[in-house]
Here is the input.
Amino acid sequence: MLAIIGGTGLAALEGLTLEDSIVMETPYGVPSANIEKGELNGSPVFFLARHGKAHSLTPHSVNYRANIWALQSLGVTRIIGVNAVGGINASMGPEVIVIPDQIVDYTWGRQSSFSEEGRVIHADFTYPYTEELRQQLFAAANKVSVNVCDSGVYGVTQGPRLETAAEIDRLEKDGCDIVGMTAMPEAILARELNIQYANVSLVVNMAAGRSEGLITMDDIQRVLDAGMGQVRVLLSAVA
Ligand code: HPA
Here is the structure.
């Protein structure tokens, strides 16, 4: 069973025929929103708005553990996380869709494991995204002629502020191609529960110091409006 976790610009999934809106409780608290169950392109899927339906949760206050736990308890075996990101690599400019293959995690203070005393998990995370699911995304992109970049290193920052230009220089030296705030701990929590996980990132701005002028929310919104349509087409084809 597939679940899609939508981020900024994807708080609802157009094309999803809604069958149920499920209120969940987990040992870790409540998920970001009700989990919507429906059909996308004739296939059953679950959908969860990462920041809540009204986009009220900041990246560091999302209850990632409750989200992943709730999805697994509904029988989810594959998750596609959708994120809006900044581009660091010059070839990953606004409106480019990236399906990253690696992560550098700069977040702190987030509940980032299901490990607890007496039950320590040291999950292998060499390849943070499930290759099989990435390949399904490439095949879907091909089928519906959506251009995607098939690799990239996602640097995950704490937010909610954007980065300084010097921080982006550092991320670039570290090998990051794109920067966002929500890829972690989502990916590792899915791994700990043996759920397949891949990410679809839409570049909505050039990262700090990588373009003339400052980053404005108006510019980001314009790119979100233009680019999320393609992301939706891609998601429909993978369902
Ligand atoms: N930095 C971090 N997160 C982001 C950005 C950015 O430039 N754009 C969208 N999410």
Q: What stands out?
A: Residues 84-86, 157, 162-163, 179-181, 204-205, 207 surround hypoxanthine (CB under 6 Å).
